[in-house]
Design brief:
Structural class of chain A: alpha+beta
Largest interface: A-B, 60 and 66 residues
Oligomer: heterodimer
Largest sheet of chain A: 5 strands, mixed
Radius of gyration of chain B: 21 Å
Strand content of chain A: 15-25%
Structural class of chain B: alpha+beta
Shape of chain B: elongated
Number of helices of chain A: 8
Number of strands of chain B: 20
Distance between the termini of chain A: 63 Å
Largest sheet of chain B: 9 strands, mixed
Strand order of the largest sheet of chain A: 2-1-5-3-4
Helix content of chain B: 25-40%
Shape of chain A: globular
Number of helices of chain B: 11
Helix content of chain A: 25-40%
Number of strands of chain A: 13
């Protein structure tokens, strides 16, 4: 099946959209389409990818303005409702907020630097027999191998989708400092740059931070203090785009709300 | 002109471990990868941490090596593993008859395999085939392939290694039968440059033949395509394998909230742009249902195909300690001194591959420093973006 894609090429002032054709089967994903191009006529196409099954978090891009993992996006799903008179050409762009590398690739470094150091990536499993259950800390069943718990990697795959979709990180990270939306005298909203305030940590970092208060209760106080700093939870404007775009259902917006409440309760206590 | 003791070509698990090993020995190292790091075979592997049980009946040495590396990885990169153990299930007469030999073979390879009653296995993993005849517990697990490799990259970078993705090596020049420079092309800024070096390690995996061709050399690799299918839902905590001689579709690896069945094997002319075949997906889902009934009824998540490098199994200079991993010293084999190829291996054995490649290079460069990569915990993977 021949399909057309409009893909961002280059970076900075030299960036532009180019339209390419791919010819793939009905099962192909958007990542397959990018691989098709790179192994064919566009050998210098730059994009990130690794696991091809939504575990590594490298291949997040914006498709028609929405953050998605290319490897889990069926190519055909992008052409739903297409007619002969009204052909669809999906627009593929790199994530916002991050420093561009080239074409669809961004440098994810900022995301990893925004997450406090020594955050655990593996924790006790809450999935037994395909169903979520509460952790069984005092389970009387001793595992015959001697392990004392089942473990599972964290759900967040650090793909950066939430950071790109969040209107606050999208503007703070490119500017390099904080900002706030204020009301002008006539009541209309305006953006006020705050050059002395650090940029918003972003939804991924705050979600990781909140998870860690659960995984490592002894770090709770220190982590809540981090979240309460300028650029922490107070910078969140509750757009909830982060929770909407998360491909793993991590719901960073929920974590941020929980952090706010816990910080409040902590202060009162 | 930039200058390094060693240039590594290929940013998969092998290249990562080689860069780290050499950097720890005090060499200046640069690694170039034409795509994103781990975008070849490394990222696309099944995600199984091999205790070696799968290989025990076929090759004791490989099985031993897997077990030894499992123990090391637990120590140096524990958070990249879900160390939840594995169950081998005998589902038919041949499997049942093979059980004693299987357990013996595991123990001969230092793998603590224990037969447990099928009833007990079902208590531990309620979703496995209720008609399981015999069950053996082994120390398998799950690997986050991307983050494990990134921990090696982070540790290499922390020791001063230069890791450059989206940078293709376009030429390897020699002078007087000795490697002198490599030409690189950056896809970031479309610029070309030349790098001076004393040694080159070809860690191209299934693309190793193309890398070797840059120096006019021949490395026989046969790309073999392996397909895997992931469904939503974590059906088990442990890795579930079929107790029989290794075959297609006999392993279910759980990871995060997913379950992944693999794999298949078919020869392909090129490792590029591989796609799963519909019959492979059908076959794998059916095979998974035998191990974990209902697997195919879970929501489909993804199917993908990786290129394994089927390396030549002999090594001309006998440096290889495992028949599965091949280190070729092209100085001795082809008269191109300073050029080394490392092929074969598996995700579980990435560290030892790096050690073996670094041994060969260190000896060539006249160093008697030995590998230290098994001694220290690796840097956190996120550290890669703090030091780069």
């Amino acid at each position: 099946m021949i399909r057309k894609l409009s893909i961002y090429r280059g970076h900075g002032e030299t960036g532009r959209f180019e339209t390419f054709e791919v010819d793939l089967g009905p099962q192909a994903t958007l990542l397959d389409a990018l691989e098709y191009l790179r192994n064919g006529t566009v050998s210098d196409l730059v994009y990130r990818h690794s696991c091809h099954h939504g575990s590594c978090g490298t291949c997040s891009v914006r498709i028609n303005g929405h953050e998605k993992l290319a490897c889990l996006t069926p190519l055909e799903s992008l052409y739903a409702g297409e007619t002969d008179d009204d052909p669809i050409v999906p627009v593929i762009e790199p994530l916002l907020a991050f420093e561009p590398v080239a074409d669809l690739a961004v440098d994810p470094g900022r995301l990893f630097r925004s997450i406090p150091e020594r955050i655990t990536h593996v924790r006790e499993s809450e999935w037994i027999n395909g169903k979520p259950v509460a952790p069984q800390k005092d389970s009387p069943t001793v595992h015959p191998s001697g392990i004392d718990r089942y473990e599972r990697f964290e759900d967040c795959i650090e793909c950066g989708s939430c950071v790109s979709a969040c209107p606050v990180t999208a503007r703070d990270w490119s500017a390099g400092f904080g900002s706030a939306v204020v009301k002008l005298e006539d009541g209309s909203p305006a953006l006020m740059p705050l050059p002395d305030t650090p940029p918003f940590m972003g939804p991924a970092a705050l979600a990781a931070l909140h998870r860690e208060t659960i995984n490592k209760s002894e770090r709770r106080e220190e982590l809540l203090a981090l979240a309460a700093q300028p650029g922490g939870v107070d910078s969140c404007e509750r757009h909830f785009e982060c929770s909407r775009v998360c491909p793993r259902g991590v719901a960073p917006g929920k974590h941020i709300e929980l952090l706010r409440r816990e910080i409040r309760e902590h202060k009162e206590a | 002109m930039e200058q390094y003791d060693v240039v590594i070509i290929g940013g998969g698990g092998t290249g990562a471990a080689t860069a780290y090993d050499l950097a720890l020995r005090g060499f200046t190292v640069a690694l170039f990868e034409r795509g994103e790091l781990t975008s070849g075979t490394t990222g696309r592997h099944h995600g199984q941490l091999h205790s070696g049980a799968r290989y025990a009946l076929g090759d004791t040495r490989i099985a031993q090596e897997c077990m030894a590396e499992t123990r090391i990885l637990r120590r140096i990169a524990g958070d990249c593993l879900e160390y939840n153990q594995g169950l081998f299930l005998a589902l038919d007469d041949p499997g049942e008859a093979l059980t004693e030999d299987f357990v013996d073979a595991c123990r001969a390879a230092d793998i603590p395999a224990t037969e447990i009653p099928p009833r007990r296995a079902l208590e531990l993993e309620g979703r496995i085939n209720p008609h399981t005849r015999r069950a053996v517990l082994v120390p398998d697990g799950t690997i986050d392939a991307y983050r494990l490799a990134m921990r090696f990259f982070a540790s290499a970078a922390a020791r001063g290694a230069v890791i450059r993705n989206f940078t293709e090596v376009t030429s390897v020049e020699t002078q007087g039968g000795r490697v002198t420079t490599v030409g690189i092309h950056s896809l970031r800024n479309r610029r070309d440059s030349t790098i001076k070096t004393q040694a080159v390690v070809n860690a191209g995996g299934p693309w190793a033949d193309r890398v070797a061709a840059l120096a006019g050399l021949d490395v026989p690799v046969t790309p073999a395509a392996g397909t895997m299918v992931a469904v939503e839902g974590r059906l088990t905590n442990m890795v579930i394998s079929r107790l029989r001689r290794p075959s297609d579709g006999d392993i279910v690896v759980p990871q995060r909230k997913l379950s992944i069945v693999g794999s298949t094997q078919r020869r392909v002319p090129s490792p590029d742009a591989l796609h799963p075949l519909e019959e492979e997906i059908r076959f794998l889902l059916g095979a998974a249902d035998e191990l974990v009934p209902g697997f195919s009824q879970q929501p489909f998540r993804a199917a993908w195909t990786a290129a394994r490098p089927l390396a030549g199994r002999s090594d001309d200079d006998g440096r290889s300690i495992s028949r599965d991993i091949a280190i070729v010293d092209h100085g001795k084999k082809d008269g191109v001194r300073g050029f080394f190829s490392v092929t074969g291996g598996k995700a579980t054995t990435l560290r030892i591959m790096g050690e073996m490649a670094a041994d060969a290079v260190a000896q060539y460069l006249g160093s008697d420093e030995t590998s230290q990569t098994a001694l220290f915990e690796l840097y956190p993977y996120a550290h890669f973006w703090r030091v780069q």
